[in-house]
Structure formats: C-alpha cells, structure tokens
Amino acid sequence: MKAITVEPMKASSARLEDVPEPDPRLGSILVEAVAVGVCGTDVEIVEGSYGWAPSDKERLVLGHESLGRVIDPGSAAGFKKGDLVVGIVRRPDPVPCPNCAVGEWDMCRNGQYTERGIKAIDGYMSERWRIEPEYAMKMDPSLGIFGVLLEPTTVVAKAWEVALAVGGRSFWEPQNVLVTGAGPIGLLAAGIGVQRGMEVHVLDRVTAGPKVDLVEMVGATYHSTTVSDLDFEPDMIMECTGVGQVIVESLQKLASGGVICLTGIGHGGSLSGLAPADIAAAAVLKNNIIVGSVNANKRHWYKASQDLARANPDVLKGLITRREEPQNFQHALQRQPDDIKVVVQFSDI
Ligand SMILES: [Zn+2]
To answer: Which side of the chain, N or C, has fewer Cβ within a 10 Å radius?
Structure first.
C-alpha cells in the first residue's frame, strides 16, 4: 500500500512510497484512510526538526489528524464495516507516570509517551491503518469529511476545560473571550466559546478573506488591530499564535482575575521595551492565571466529538480550504495565504 513517510530529523526525506500492510500489533480494527489533516507539527517533521521513527525502523508514516472508514472491525464490539472513525494520537508511557496511570496521558510527566505519526508509532497517512478499539473514536456519519477536524478540536476542548477549571479558583463568570489567531485552532476555539454563550472576539493580521468571513459566520467579532489597541479587557484569552509580541500584549490586556491559556508554540523573536519582571508584576497585581495546554485525553476526545457535532456545518466546510491527493502531499505541506486547514484525501466520502 502507499504511505507518506519521512526519516525524522532529516530534511527533505518525505516521500510517497510502497510500504507493507499495517502491522496487526497496531490494533485489531482495519481502516481505509479517507483523509488526514496537515498541521504545523507535520511541517516541522518534514523540515527535519521534529519526530521519531518507531524503534525498529528508520522511517515514520506521517499524519496524526485522521479520518477513516472501517474495513474490518475484527473482534471489536461496537464497530462495524463502514463506520467512520478517527484515531486517537497519544499513547501512555510504559512506566507509567502517575498521570498516564490514571488515563491522563495528555499530562504525561516523564515525556515517554508515544504518538501516532509524530513519536515512535506510525501515523495515519497510509491507504490503510490499524487502530485499537479503545483508541478509535466512532464519528457521527452526518459529519462526513468534517470528522478530520476532530483532532484539532480535541486540543481546543482541553484548552477550554483547562481555562475554565483554573479560573474556577475564585468566583469567576467570564463574559468575553479573546482568541488570538484565526487558524483552525483559533476558529474552533471561537466556535466553542459562542456555543457556550460567551461574547467572542478573534484577532488576526489579515483584513479580508476566508478567516474574516468565518469569524463572522461563527458569530464572533473580528479584529485586525494589535491586542494593545483593543478597546476592552478580555476575561479570558485563548492564545493560538505562539507569537511573543501577541503573548506579551495579551498578558497586559487581560482583565483582573482573568485567565490566559497558551496553546500556540512559537520560537524566538524579541520584545520591545518589556521586562519579564514588569510582565510578572502585572500578572500578580491582577490575580491573573497563565496556563499552558497541549494534547488531549479521551475525555477531551469525547467532548470534542460533541462540540464538532454541534458546530455550524458551513463553518466546518469553510475551515477545510484545500484537499490534495496523496501524490501531491508536498503541496499540502506548503502554506498558501488563504489556507486554514489543508487535508490529504486518500479516498472519497
Ligand atoms: Zn506518562
């Protein structure tokens, strides 16, 4: 079968190639790939700056934002041929650490977890893949291709849960939320905020185009200013850019008692005229919470599947801006100005 593989930590090593059928040890359910979403992590892996091959191989099958159709459910109860499924990404570490031991592998403390398509287990960018029943999420058939958005939605579902949980350390009724960055994570975060009845604002750099239209379609307000120039103080900020200047301005803009949840992963950059101690002092004097959130456990996968089923289908349709065939995977990995979510499509749906 065909698969998109890469030699991790080696730039320009990605290729579409013939590989053996999926290893039965990866799960009793055999799945035909429908589509796999592409994100910044995939780009990093293909650029040679991230990723680990399985311990007995040199190459890793890429892809962690899956959607597939069951070919053979094996002995798994609750699954049948034709079901649409999405594969969970992370597996607990083998030690296990206390968090993995209680099923919170998203909070793994020793870093020895593994991840499909990222860390030591083959991913989902192959014509067929296998999955363990306990790591397969059955999707509502009416979602169709939008099921490929489940994995990014899990990241958002966890971030929301985390922000609300830490905010609950005192009496706190957040009225408005600022989402920085109108990429897939930001737009999905905005959608969940609106679903929860909050006043949602989304900030990005573009002044027109699909991101702006989607923010309006979600029911949020779009801003193309800087965070500093906003004329309100957000009770909660979902930071989805990873850009230093945006983060610092967000910390300064956050309302008293507010929570900022960091989900973006950036690198480097410099700040103009702001000392860490001054930023920290503002956080102290305003009782702010700064919390990071990554990955998701099965509870968040379940919540995300509910959030996705409730989402406006026109918004979900707008999020998937490009579908590429497997042989054009290199195009899928090259960002275009109007891209939001690009998927590699393996079969029709
Ligand atoms: Zn662990």
So the answer is: N
| 268-327 pLDDT per residue, tens | 887 767 788 988 999 999 999 999 999 999 999 999 999 999 999 999 999 999 999 999
Place of tokens 């029943």: 133
195 residue type, one letter: Q
Q: Whole-model pTM above 0.90?
A: yes
- Alpha-carbon distance of 302 to 80, in angstroms, equals 19
Distance (Å) from CA 127 to ligand 1 centroid: 30
Would you call 332 exposed, middle or buried from its count of C-beta atoms within 10 A (0-12, 13-18, 19+)? buried
CA-CA distance, 70 to 76, in Å (whole number)? Answer: 11
Tokens describing residue 189? 């975060």
pLDDT at 337: 87
Which residues does the chain have with pLDDT short of 50?
Answer: none
Structure tokens at 308: 């996705």
Measured in angstroms, how far is the CA atom of residue 294 from the centroid of ligand 1?
14
As a whole number of angstroms, the distance between CA 333 and CA 95 comes to 35
